Amino acid sequence: MSAAPCLYGSMNASRIVVAGPLCKGNVSDVCVVDSKCALVTKNISSVGIEGTITMTYVNGYKTGWDSVDAIGDLSNLSTIGLSVVNFTKLNIDAITFSRTLQYLLFDNMSIPVIPETLNYTDRLGHLLFIETNTSNIPKTLPVNLFDWTFLYQPLNTDTLPNIPYSVQYLDLHGNEITNLTYHKLDWTNKTHVFLHKNKLQEISNVKFKKGMLKSFVLSNANISHFELDLNSFGALDSLGPFQILNQSFFDAQEYGFRMNISNITQDAQKCDAVKGVVTELWSLHAAINKKTYSVCVVTPPPAATTLLPTPAPTVASSSNTGLIVGVVAIGVVILVAALCFFIRRRNRKSDAEFEYQREGGKSAGGTTSTRFITDNTATGIDMSELTLYRLNQQDVVPQKKIASGAYAHVLYGTYKGTPVAIKKLLSSRVGVSEVQGLIDEIKLLASFTSPYVVKLVGCCWDQPSDLECVLEYMNAGDLRDNLIARTAVDFTWNEKIHVIAAIVDALAYLHSMPVIHRDLKSRNVLLDSVKSAKLTDFGVSKEDTQETMTVGVGTYRWMAPEILQVNHYSVAADMFSFGMILSELDTHNIPYADVTNPKNGKPLVDTAIMSMVIAGTIKPTFSHTMPEWVRDMAQQCIATDPEDRPTAMMLSNVVRKQIKREAHQLGV
């Protein structure tokens, strides 16, 4: 039987870096082969002659290869980073990345056109091209990309719309861009935008979002027309002067606007031509700026009336206190006040209870039930709000229960043959308030676009009490079960850092909306063998019974002291809970599992722990094997004062910087 043809036979290359079977060793070995797949160099050297390739592992580095002129199949590697630097000529057309790759850098080499055929991984979050003589931004960039850095290139601005919406960190400096006017650019998901050293003259058709945008950097620009809609103007105008945040493990983080050697003086005639109003930008900071920046603000015409679902309500307190998400916790979340906590059961009013009547006139529990009133007017429930998300009920096939809570259970099933998770209210919990809560949850989930939050597939129902929420299925269970079932040897910090990155990116996304998760713990982090970890809230709503208060299965051990004491929720409460998750990742136990009663040696009950959390006399344990930067991050997250805790956006940058540091020793 003849051997399979070599994949590299048509390449104009003679020394191709590959990993796996062609190296005739372990599947993770790296070697150099020729265009006939014959082994040229085994166990490649650590220092390249013409260039260096750095494959980064969490616990070390493997670098270099002599005089290679192409990269081939690296899919057998377990790398999180790949840096390709200082090559005069390198063919990347046939590159296949490892599934674990998160960070990819090409620097100081020649890649005139990025191939549209590159097969990026789902986990790739950071993609950097620096001085690679590249003109295009391909259409096939990863849909989950977080960081797009594209510096000092002969950029064709016609390809700017190809930047994925998911990108939050956008660095386009040094590309000789003179105008951003020819394409509509939706940058409402961008948190950091760097456009300095571009000699910009005109900007229009670019949209930003207030609360999302954290920094905007522009230099060497002389702009005569800067056209913004009202919302985008608000996003820029809300920024303060540039500042750098430095806190122990933080690298320099930029927030605010920076306008070095730049002028923005709006041409009044150009503004009149688009029916705009010349408006001063950053007028509150004129004394600091020592100059005036004027832009053209255009108010859009009234939008046509369309029948869209009512947007999820927002909280009108502070910018830090946003819409509160509880994916399965549809009922009233347990609120604990003062140092003493009175345990009580919630009594439901019978006139608010409706049950779905199955065939034969019996409810799921076997008792006679009242059929749920399907008249929307009578019940106050408007199912038309879900029309956009409605699925054919026959296409949704439940199979087995995988999680349960006090108000709902979750089933594994399929939608048109694709695995899904199906959430349905318990037959005893189909009152008007519960059904409305599920409707609100579905609408909220539909508004999410983050790759780090479990996605809504849709919903289906025959009558309101039958409402089912169909969600993306994650095949590796929740983080808590993984921590229970796996040892620290099996569940390494390499993998845990992936989980940390996903959680902070999810929180940064939610908090920007603004949404507070409010029930963050390891049970609400789902894992998958292919996809990144994602936030959810399956099967966690617990009634405030004595049992849940004493066996450590409630949410109290993850709650911030201000929640336990005065029920004050803000995004900082989520950050405290994230610190508790970091302790779980370290010890594989729930928070405070090692704390015992000195009188009898038994574990403390939740009520005792809560009192100590409020008093500030207890902190979770961290081991000596925990990476120092993760421990520093955790300790800041669990600060007693909410003002002392970092934001999710800060931590997202910390983790990104750490990945870069691991990737190439801060060489970027």
TrEMBL record:
Keyword Coiled coil attached: no
Source taxonomy: Eukaryota, Sar, Stramenopiles, Oomycota, Saprolegniomycetes
PANTHER family: PROTEIN KINASE DOMAIN-CONTAINING PROTEIN (PTHR44329:SF214), SERINE/THREONINE-PROTEIN KINASE TNNI3K-RELATED (PTHR44329)
Protein name: TKL protein kinase
Molecular functions per Gene Ontology: ATP binding; protein serine/threonine kinase activity
InterPro entries for the chain: Kinase-like_dom_sf (IPR011009), LRR_dom_sf (IPR032675), Prot_kinase_dom (IPR000719), Ser/Thr_kinase_AS (IPR008271), Ser/Thr_Kinases-Pseudokinases (IPR051681)
Organism, as annotated: Aphanomyces astaci
Stretches assigned to the Protein kinase domain: 396-659
Record carries keyword Membrane: yes
